[in-house]
Amino acid sequence: MSGHDMTRRRAIEVGGIAAAASLAAGGAAALGQARAPAATGQPMPDDVSLPSQPPRAPRPGSVGFAIIGLGDYALNQIMPRFARSERTHIAALVSGNPDKLRQVGEAYGVAPEARYSYERFDEIAANPAVEAVYIILPSGLHAEWTERAFAAGKHVLCEKPMALTSAECERMIAAGQRANRRLMIAYRVHFEPYNMAAMDLMREKAVGDLRLIRTEHSYRAGPSTPATNWRHNRALAGGGPLEDYGLYGLQATLYLSGEMPTRISASAHRPEGDPRFSEIFAHVAAQLHFPSGAVAQVVTSYDSAGLNLVEARGNAGALVMRPATNYNGNTLSLETGRDGRKLEPGDSEVQFAGQLNHFAAAIRDGAPIITPGEMGLRDLRLIEAIYASATSGRTVALNPDATMRG
Ligand code: NDP
Predict the structure, then answer these.
(1) Active site residue 154
(2) pLDDT (average), residues 233-259
(3) Chain centroid to CA 110: how far?
(4) What is the dihedral of CA 163, 100, 113, 125, to 10 degrees?
(5) How far is the CA of 91 from the centre of ligand 1 (A)?
């Protein structure tokens, strides 16, 4: 039999359901434990276009951020978008690559004394211009760096997934409470007009009573190994596609249904002999059962032709988003009867500044955070339940806070 299905058969191989469930505390654990390496500098990503002139001076009251990790998402998406956020600015940079740190610092007008190596990070505590950090490191490093940032007295905006296990999420939340600092998870689509419009339509029952949700977030990964790409490295990426890309679909099932699942059944697949999947899964498929009777399917893959799809079907119509969760170019159509209506609720681009301004409002005005650490924790609990089901081959029952029953 080719392949490596994390099914009932596999559970029996590893010594029964109880052993399998205890192994499945997360994607990394489902595959065997591994420890994340220390943060280490990486080369400048491809196709980075640095600003030709430094940004304008920050407005009064603007919140100064340190960017931790100058990778693809930081340099190509997040840092350029600070220009559109009137309540935040880049005040410091943290990187393990000194040349890149200098080059990026010069381009963004960040003074040499506000450029930190990972080793010197703790000195940031003495820099009052930095009130918050934005952690854009590989996912397996989020917990450690969140705790270090709180210890330095800074507020934390942390990229998704919040961490790789629910235990890490709990530690992060506790560290923020001890430091009396705010914690937000960078779930950007909560600030993206197409997704916000979809949430409103679902609340208004535009499709009638919800019956089915289908999400798929897939792409085909190029030739990579755990050594050449952290997304294929268990210690830095957990089980792989689910924590990274599939998380968008998992989130969508919750914000579109407005419910928490009571039962989850899932499978996960790791092909043998493919260096890309020596440490992570290639695909994960989960079925979520909601109290209303609605059912959601969440599928994600690093080894299939690309798709970014969210579809919600009720007894009076359907809402289709394809792509659903991109940086831009998302679509939303509402199909009722024979009518199909394409909606254009706004410019997706605003999601980045919207997210930054939201965190600034939390810090400055004490406003509630709509994507707090507790949401990240909830999602990691669901991910753990998905792996527990995939590992045991059984349906997992959940409490309302997404912890597993029994
Ligand atoms: P990259 O690999 O492009 O960048 C990661 C950066 O982290 C590196 O450039 C490096 O910065 C630093 N780093 C520190 N230690 C390591 C290590 N051991 N291995 C690799 N990098 C290390 O990743 P992305 O920018 O794509 O992803 C970063 C985070 O952002 C992830 O958590 C990811 O899930 C999230 N993300 C979120 C997206 C969203 O839409 N919300 C989209 C894409 C990513 P340096 O050289 O400066 O030290």
Answers:
(1) no
(2) 98
(3) 27
(4) 10
(5) 19
Q: Which of 72, 103, 168, 250 to mutate to test the pocket of ligand 1 (most atoms within 8 A of CB)?
A: 72
CA–CA distance, 385 with 403 (Å, rounded to integer): 8
pTM value surpassing 0.90: yes
Enumerate residues lining ligand 1, CB below 6 A: 37, 39-42, 45, 69-74, 95-97, 100, 136-139, 141, 159-160, 186, 188, 230, 244
Determine the average pLDDT of the residues in 381-391: 98
For residue 35, what pLDDT is reported? 73
Instruction: List own/partner pairs for 165-170 with CB under 8 A and 24 or more apart.
Output: 165/25, 165/26, 165/28, 165/29, 165/238, 165/380, 165/384, 166/25, 166/26, 166/377, 166/380, 166/381, 166/384, 167/25, 168/142, 168/143, 168/380, 169/143, 169/373, 169/376, 169/377, 169/380, 170/377
Q: CB neighbours of 312 closer than 8 A, spacing ≥ 6?
A: 198, 202, 207, 210, 212, 213, 256, 257, 318, 319
Catalytic member of 100, 160, 205, 342 = 160
